[in-house]
C-alpha cells in the first residue's frame, strides 16, 4: 500500500515479473486493502492461484517517523509482510513504502544477523562499464567502524554473487586515495583485516570515486554517509547530462535529424541508466530478506525489485553470510584476546 502509487504498481510489478521471468515456483502474498488489490488483480489479468491477499486496512504513512511506525504499525500492511518472513510464511518481503519504517520494523521483527551491527546496510546496484557494481552502505548507517566495514564486504560479496551471478566478486574499500596510508582509521583498519585470510572474500584494496562507474571492482564498501552522497551525486549528474543531451538533440532541424538516426543507440543507453532497471535495494544484515523499492518506481521497476528478492531467496546468500560472520567473529575475538594478554603482560612487567 506504500510508495507513490500503491497497489497499481505493486500488482503491476507482479505481472511484469511473471511476464519477463516466468514466475515458475513463485507465489505472492499481497498485504493491504483487499478491494483495491482485487481490482488491480482483475485489471492485470492475474490468477488467484498466483496471488494470495492478506487484508488489512491499516497502513504506515510515507511521512511517519520510524519510532511512530513501530508504536502503531502492528497489523499494518508493512508490518504484516515482514512478519510473514519472520514466521516462515514468505521467503522475502518487497516494499515501496516508508524507508525508515521499513528498516525499523524489519530490525524489530527479524533481528540483526550480527551483534553490533546497528542497522541493516542498504546496497545499490550501480551501472558500470562492466555491468553492475554493488555499493554499500548507501544511507542506512551514517558512520561505520572497521568491523562494520568488513561486515559490509561480506554481505556485499554474497549479494553480488547471488543477484548478479558473479562467481568470485572482487571487493574494494572506497577511500580518498589508493595508497595504504590514505584515509581515516576505520578504513585503514578494515583494509588491514581484509588483506588477511580472516574472511574468504576477494579483496583488492582501496578504490576511489571514479572507480565505481568504471567497474574496477564488483563490490564497493563505504559508510552510509559517503555512500549516500556518492549515490545522490551520481543520480544528479545523470539527470544533468540527460537534460543537456536532450537539449542538444532538439536544438534545430539538423540536430533532430541526427537524433532520429541515433535513436536505437540512444534508447539502449537510456535503458542502461534507467533507475527502473536497477530498482530494488536489499536491507543486508537482517535474519531474513527484505527489499526496498523506490517509492516512485514503475511497474517494471517493481518487477525488478521482485526479481532481486527471488534471486536472494533462491540463493545460499543467508547461509554464506552467516558462515563468514562466524569465521570473522572467531578471528577477531582471538585477536582481541591476544591483544589483552599482551597489554596485561606489559603492565605486570
**Averaging pLDDT over every residue, what do you get?**
85
Helix content: 40-55%
Largest sheet: 8 strands, mixed
Going across the major beta sheet, what is the strand order?
Answer: 3-10-9-4-5-8-6-7
Estimated share of beta-strand residues:
5-15%
Sequence of secondary-structure elements: HEHEHHEHEEHEHEHEHHHEEHH
| First-last Cα distance | 66 Å
Question: Helical segment tally?
Answer: 13
Coarse shape: globular
Low-confidence stretches: none
Question: Radius of gyration, Cα only, in angstroms?
Answer: 22 Å
Structural class: alpha/beta
Number of strands: 10
What would your notes on this structure say?
The protein is α/β, with parallel strands linked by helices. Helix content is 53%, strand content 14%. It contains 13 helices and 10 strands. It has an 8-stranded mixed β-sheet, sandwiched between helices. The model has no long low-confidence stretch (mean pLDDT 85).
Compact summary:
With 349 residues, the protein is of the alpha/beta class. 53% of the residues lie in helices and 14% in strands.
Topology, please?
Layout: H1 7-21, E1 28-32, H2 34-44, E2 51-55, H3 66-72, H4 77-86, E3 93-95, H5 99-110, E4 121-128, E5 131-136, H6 146-164, E6 170-174, H7 185-195, E7 202-207, H8 209-214, E8 219-221, H9 224-249, H10 253-261, H11 263-273, E9 281-284, E10 290-292, H12 299-314, H13 317-348
Parallel strand pairs: 1-2, 3-10, 5-8, 6-7, 6-8
Antiparallel strand pairs: 4-5, 4-9, 9-10
Amino acid at each position: 500500500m506504500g510508495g507513490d502509487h500503491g497497489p497499481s504498481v505493486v500488482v503491476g510489478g507482479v505481472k511484469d515479473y511473471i511476464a519477463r521471468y516466468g514466475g515458475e515456483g513463485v507465489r505472492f502474498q499481497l498485504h493491504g486493502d483487499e478491494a483495491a488489490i482485487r481490482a488491480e488483480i482483475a485489471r492485470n489479468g492475474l490468477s488467484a492461484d498466483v496471488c494470495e491477499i492478506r487484508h488489512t486496512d491499516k497502513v504506515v504513512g510515507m511521512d511517519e517517523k520510524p519510532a511512530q511506525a513501530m508504536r502503531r504499525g502492528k497489523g499494518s500492511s508493512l508490518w504484516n509482510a515482514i512478519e510473514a518472513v519472520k514466521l516462515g510464511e514468505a521467503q522475502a518481503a518487497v516494499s515501496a513504502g516508508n524507508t525508515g519504517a521499513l528498516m525499523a520494523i524489519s530490525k524489530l521483527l527479524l533481528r540483526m544477523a550480527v551483534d553490533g551491527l546497528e542497522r541493516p546496510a542498504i546496497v545499490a546496484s550501480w551501472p558500470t562499464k562492466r555491468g553492475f557494481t554493488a555499493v554499500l552502505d548507501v544511507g542506512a548507517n551514517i558512520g561505520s567502524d572497521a568491523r562494520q566495514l568488513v561486515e559490509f564486504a561480506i554481505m556485499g560479496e554474497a549479494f553480488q554473487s547471488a543477484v548478479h551471478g558473479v562467481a568470485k566478486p572482487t571487493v574494494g574499500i572506497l577511500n580518498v586515495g589508493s595508497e595504504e596510508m590514505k584515509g581515516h582509521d576505520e578504513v585503514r583498519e578494515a583494509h588491514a583485516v581484509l588483506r588477511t585470510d580472516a574472511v574468504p572474500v576477494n579483496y583488492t584494496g582501496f578504490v576511489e570515486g571514479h572507480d565505481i562507474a568504471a567497474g574496477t571492482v564488483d563490490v564497493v564498501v563505504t559508510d552510509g554517509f559517503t555512500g549516500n552522497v556518492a549515490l545522490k551525486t551520481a543520480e544528479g549528474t545523470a539527470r544533468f547530462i540527460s537534460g543537456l543531451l536532450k537539449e542538444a538533440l532538439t536544438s534545430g532541424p539538423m540536430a533532430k535529424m541526427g537524433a532520429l538516426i541515433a535513436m536505437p543507440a540512444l534508447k539502449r543507453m537510456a535503458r542502461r541508466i534507467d533507475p527502473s532497471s536497477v530498482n530494488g535495494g536489499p536491507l543486508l544484515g537482517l535474519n531474513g530478506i527484505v527489499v526496498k523499492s523506490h517509492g516512485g518506481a514503475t511497474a517494471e521497476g517493481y518487477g525488478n525489485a521482485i526479481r532481486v528478492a527471488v534471486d536472494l531467496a533462491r540463493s545460499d546468500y543467508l547461509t554464506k553470510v552467516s558462515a563468514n560472520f562466524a569465521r570473522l567473529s572467531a578471528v577477531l575475538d582471538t585477536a582481541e584476546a591476544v591483544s589483552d594478554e599482551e597489554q596485561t603482560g606489559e603492565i605486570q612487567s
